[in-house]
Amino acid sequence: MKKAYLIDAEHQRITTIEIDTDDHLSVVNAIGGGCSLMEVAEYESNRDCLMVDEDGWTQQQYLFAWRGNVFAGNGLLMGPADEEGYTQSVETSELDCALAVEWPVPEGFKVSPELRDEILSDIMVMEFIPADAVKPATKPSKKRSK
d(Cα 113, Cα 58) in Å, to the nearest integer? Predict the structure, then answer.
């Protein structure tokens, strides 16, 4: 279990939590608020990373700002990856985390239906193909024609 900071946009608080950072489902569940996809929103100079709900702008009404950048839904500040790619405990201090978050977000900033429509129009929709519908690659034959 690794230490991380949960940025709770609805209740405007930061909580230190212990999480299995190498289990993506644990990270998604920690972000909460109906999060089903996560994305890296920011990297800190110490390589800590801020994870947010990738669909936050389409589903969330609560906001927070991290160093002036506004995000919808909750955030999770996690530590850097080690040499083998495993996420470590957060290195940022609780004080520095608290200083990076703005409550409330900049004055006048609201998620209006127009803003949601604008954001949604910029999102690329990808079609996911079920694995059983994909044919395996075939190896080229070893026979050579003359």
Answer: 10
pLDDT tens string 23-36 = 888 888 888 888 88
> What Cα–Cα distance (Å) separates residue 83 from each residue in 60, 67, 80, 100, 145?
35, 28, 10, 27, 48
Closest CA to 7 of 103, 115, 118, 137: 103
Instruction: Evaluate if residue 95 carries a pLDDT over 70.
Output: yes
Phi, psi of 145 (to 5 degrees): -90, 145
pLDDT band at 72 (very low <50, low <70, confident <90, very high): confident
pLDDT-derived band at 86 (thresholds 50, 70, 90) equals confident
What is the side-by-side strand order in the sheet with 38-43? Answer: 13-19, 2-8, 75-78, 49-53, 38-43
The backbone torsions φ and ψ at residue 43, rounded to the nearest 5 degrees and listed phi first, read -115, 135
> Domain boundaries in the chain?
2-122
Residues found in the chain: 146
The structure's pTM equals 0.71
